Amino acid sequence: MEAVMKNFAIFAAALAALSTLPAVIVGAQEYKAGSIEVDQPWSTATPRGASVAAGYVTIKNTGTEPDRLTGASTAVAGKVEIHEMTMDNGIMRMRPLASGLEIKPGQTVELKPSSFHLMLMNLKGPIQQGMPFKATLMFAKAGSVDVEFAVGPVGASSPPAQDAHHH
Amino acid sequence: MSRQVSRLMVIMTASFATLACCLGVIAFVGSRIGTGSVQAAAIGGPIHLTDQNGQPFSDQDLKGKSFLVFFGFTHCPDVCPTTLFELSEVMRHLGKDADRTAALFITVDPERDTPQALKDYMSSFDPHLRGLTGDQDAVAAVAKAYRVYYRKVPLEGGDYTMDLTAIVYLMDKEGRFVSPFNMRRTAEAEADDLRKHL
Asked: Which residues of chain A make contact with B117, given a CB cutoff of 8 A?
């Protein structure tokens, strides 16, 4: 009887641990939480001494309700903001999206160079090629999604080559 | 009566505004189809800055060299490192010819981009690329000469970013503007193009 109780306690604890897992890892570079699918997070190595970096990722809303990327956090940066970069007549502008980035039902939003990106600020150290880092993306409805960013070379404008099979 | 007068005034004002607009458009188009030499004279000019080694750098140091100029800042996560990486690739493809040109990265954020900060940053790129900074006035003077727009934009928590004209300029041996340097080609094609101007 005691053994059964003990087993049950372990089972309950395991169940509790599972239920707090924010996301289910679907593939090596693909993550899912509720109706939100997060694909291929990547970044680039930073030039020496740089204190900012950009994070890119593809987000798909498979549900019927709009959701919103509201923020992100990572141990490698003091803070992360969601920015939009625009290029107009040769003038580059970067603006924080104060209320986050909406992902409509059925919509796929790409955070990519010269567009939406996660602005990693106050970097705690260099981001180095081939050294992935973990981050948590926060969604208004889907909650938080733990992901890992692959890191390409300095100045790369597309995801690291080893992820090519996703396209 | 006074209502009629005021209506007439409105019509006259509107007509005048329309005329002014037309004249403006004609003047604008006229300037666009003006001779190349007029345009060339409009972009570029003296440079009196400090390089990443803390040494003074002026346009006199570029005499007899065609060169590329790009304005940016190190707190720029995307366009700046990408452009500097591509310019590094151009230099690599130029091989020995890279010594006959120059590529300048002029910061518009001298407050944070000290010579030491630029020295670190530029060490990640081809050694032919030169990072330049200076005091606010010196940077403003060069930006004005190159018709570069830049502006500090505050972010939360006392941080800031910059709006700026992110164009690579190709300048000739006399320091005159040739054209914007198209960075949407392969590094090899860009190097071949630049070589024609050396």
From this structure: 49
